[in-house]
Request: fold
Amino acid sequence: MSVFTEETRERAREIISRYPADRSRSALLPLLHLVQAQEGYVSPAGVTFCAEVLGLNKAQVGAVATFYTMYKRKPTGDFLVSVCTNTMCNVLGGQEVYDTLAEHLGVGHDETTADGTITLEHAECLAACDYGPVMTVNYDFFDGVDAATAVGVVDELRAGGRPMPTRGARLCTLKEMAVQLAGFADERDGAVADGGPGEPTLRGLRLAQQHGVSVPGFDPNTPIRSKAEADKAAAEAKAKAEAAKPAPVEASAAPVKGGDGASAPTPGNAGAGEPAPAAASGSTAPDVKAPDDKSPQVRTAETRQPDAGTAVPDAPGTKVPTDSTAPEPRDARSAEAAGVAANRPAGDGKPAGDEAGAQERNLTEAKAGTDADGVGPADANETGAQK
Reply:
């Protein structure tokens, strides 16, 4: 019998429906939060559940569940208390806060109190350096804490209370938080009515207002368009851009004067049987498109050291002289072949230069306990050093 309720299965179907039919595996992250919301962690049964509804194997699901730290792989308390001890918070006393809590609760990193209420976590960074030292409870912030403040928070939690975070909405349990992370609204009455911004954040807003810093053309009352409206606007913008393109310029019938005042042939008035001249490229050689069938490595090598005998005229990085004799081509391929022959590649099981016969002989001697000279194992190191 499955441990997951029909409500969980219905929510799983709703999550999967948010993604295109051929991209359903993208729903794995919220689905993992969903199973964690029911069991308090991602259990083997949860991995199996996600694999079944998405048509994946359990190894694929497990690889994702073990990569992200927000997915817990063993039962976790109702409240995950994370203390930041990274550089800024540590300087301000974060390590002292963590050590005090560990001693007060009698648990270490990623351990849960006996009553199942608190799981303590040693966090590397909680991305709130201007509020340090910081501590989060189920990812809601308690800013500028010290050892005494942190102990007061966990004691209130263990007594059944819900201390108010410094920023954000009122606290919820880890399971309730996982429901929100799965993409569902917090259904508790007034759950998001409390809380407020932090003073450093307000300070930044006040400075922006004082100096007139704002996003150009930003209107906070602009409604968010639906996907259909956005697609329609994009199609209209594309059609408008196509209509604004200039018409192609036709070739002029008027002759173009050459340097001596004579009419120069153009694509429109070239004589019968006369090819149209190539466009000027800064080189006296005719413009020829570089071949596309060469690998990027070959093209790069030719650009760095072009062979005048085989280089394509006017190819990128090359210039074939036309007012003197072309230099003799260098036999680079022969030199490369000689280098390869002189440096045999190493095998998978031995370094380059070692002979298989010598290796087999050494192995045989090691098994026998003596080398070819009859030296015993006790003298092996000294004999080897002498050799």
